[in-house]
Amino acid sequence: MKRLLPWLLPILVAVGGFVSLGDVGAGPLLKYAGYFAGAIALPGTLILRAVWRSTGNWAEDLGLGSIVGATWQLIGWAIFTALGWQRWLIVWPALLLIGFAVAGRRHFRIAEPKPLPFAWTVGLAVSAAVMVGATTFGVMAYHAMPPDGKAYYPDLLYHLSMVHELTRSVPPELPQVVGERLDYHWFANADMAAAVDTTRLTPLVVLFRLWVLPWLVVSLLVCATLARTVSRTWWTGVLAALALAAPQLFLLLDTSVNLAPPVSLLSPSQTFGMVAAVAVAVFLIDLLFRNGTRRLWLLIVPVALVGGGSKPTVLPLLVGAVGVAALYVLVTTRRLPWRLIGTTAVLLVAGAITFLSVAGSTSGSRLQFLAVLKSLPVYTAATGDKTQPGDGGLILPALMHGEVLGTLSLLLGLLLTLQAMSWAGFGVVGRKDPIAWFLLGAMIAGWAGYLLVDHPSVSESYFVYTAAPFSLAGAGWFAATSARASGRPIPIAVAAFVLSIGYAGLLVWARGVPAASTGRQLWLSTRMLLVVLGITLFLLLVWRLTLRQAGGGMFVVLVLLSTAPISSFAQSAVRGDTEMAPTYRAARWWVYPDEAEAALWLGQNSATTDVVATNTWCRPAGSIAPGCDARGYLVSGIAGRRTLLEGWAYTNQAMANQGRGGHRYTEQPSPWPDRFALTEQALTAPTPAVLRELRNEYGVRWLYADERNGPVAPALDQLAVRRHSIGKVLIYDLGQ
Fold this sequence. Notes:
Layout: H1 8-21, H2 26-51, H3 58-82, H4 91-103, H5 118-142, H6 154-166, H7 187-199, H8 203-210, H9 212-231, H10 234-245, H11 268-289, H12 297-310, H13 314-333, H14 338-357, E1 366-367, H15 378-383, H16 405-418, H17 420-423, H18 434-452, E2 453-454, H19 461-486, H20 489-511, H21 518-547, H22 550-563, H23 566-575, H24 593-604, E3 611-614, H25 634-639, E4 642-643, H26 652-655, H27 673-684, H28 688-698, E5 700-706, H29 716-719, E6 721-726, E7 729-733
Parallel strand pairs: 3-4, 3-5
Antiparallel strand pairs: 1-2, 5-7, 6-7
Helix pairs in contact: 1-5, 2-3, 2-4, 3-7, 3-9, 5-9, 5-10, 6-7, 6-8, 9-10, 9-11, 9-19, 10-19, 11-12, 11-13, 11-19, 12-14, 13-14, 13-18, 16-21, 18-19, 19-20, 19-22, 20-21, 20-22, 20-23, 21-22
């Protein structure tokens, strides 16, 4: 009972957060908590123990078991949805639980308990409370649910459209272009769809409020498990959890759009994919290096596929991890490590399967060394290079100009500071253990993707975000070795973390006030780097003089760099867009109350498989001229209905046109000009023949017309039935 008490803290924080939000009552919270516990965590934990073993404690079992349970639930979701039995999905986990209750009751308890220290529980509970509090009081408060917000972050509405679609069909269609395949890494959205089907809660509530919270806690548990597994030291897991949680605190200070990677509400695919990647790593370490049972393949393959279907960065990192470990074994033993080679081949096949089937959104990507520097706002002003992400040759154009090399070095230093969490683990270089090289392989693959890939949306950043848990595990391992050498491991770890808080405070001062001039921005960036360098060298010197151990000094450096919330503070300084608004109010993504209310009415008064023709493909409303930002998801997102054509920006067809005509992929014309023209004609110059074509060729049942985006012909009132109108939005029923 004593070990359960600390976990009341994140629960109380979550309840307080939802009370402050005031848009989700106790009923949905309890229902979703029961769903996650009974349909995800418990079934997965039982499968974990039956196939593999228990870790010896419930917390780590539930962490790893949750992603195993989600994998099992996704299998059931695919079967039941394909058969049209979505509303009976609760039967799937129930059958599993009944089976274990009858034939595997021993798996409900731990045969050989190996409880972790109470301090571990307290550390993880505090980290979870920080994560949950920053998300509810910070991010969720900033991102109101429709129709209560003023504007909506477009990615959230895009994810919402996929959740709706994934409750309808397998394989799914593209909600924005009916009849086309949904080519995206949508497994996290499918997990949400399974929750919607089972709990009968709305996709809005599941996505905007409930889904992410248990997965944030699970992410801490699995990352702590990986750190403890490689170091065999319990407190390294606490450091990993604190390192992940600390940057989230900034979400309580800066209400601007802040991903706070490597886990986030705004990127469910990253959060879900990272959890899968870390769980597979734990299984692979036991299988390949610690004589684990071959039955682990029954967990490794499906969970790896889930990870690859959630984020395209997952399997390249796992391939890199096993591949580098294999190379190390080959060089040191001069024997071919066939188990490692075979595992690499299996992961490559899994990567090919997911890449070709569900891991879309990679179109428009190219190779360009240091292309990620273009994501810094000061880059163009400082270098004169105006090439866009996803555009250019193999070498960053600015590297060809010697006079800006000093500036590029500064910007590269900034990137290294931003991603300190993802390189701190390189301290395990030189360790004569294949597990160390397994971690290094993941980190090398992550940094290779980060520095070489040039994605139109700068999504190469997700490579280092996914590598962060491997880096934290490596840093913790090195820290544990250094601490043991000093003879006082726990006091040193506590002191280092306390110092890191002061370290972060000085970084806040170093950040300064965002400035308009390029020179001022560069100076602020330089000042930040000087502060980082100065404090690090000072602490290293003090540590060496007091303990006379270089290892101890490096331990402090690594712990500081991996636990201080550097990245969030530095990102705000680099972006220069700190905003203290109560809710998200970006003008480009403004949604008028009548637009949101009409979309909700349409969702409530139409069938889930109905198709809608609409002119809401661009945002903001009123900007439908060529070159507008084609990320409009009012009907496919808020209404949750398939559309003849809506925002096409995130389709592979549009992303492949990145840079054409000097425009980003988000501003490219529609890859489906025939649908564009047909919609325009139906709204501005309708005829019986045009409306008949909409019905017969594309199955369109409804017209959602926003007069802000162009005129709506009065003749529609004679050719169709107006079912609803509010403000400037008219909704017509074309009939069966």
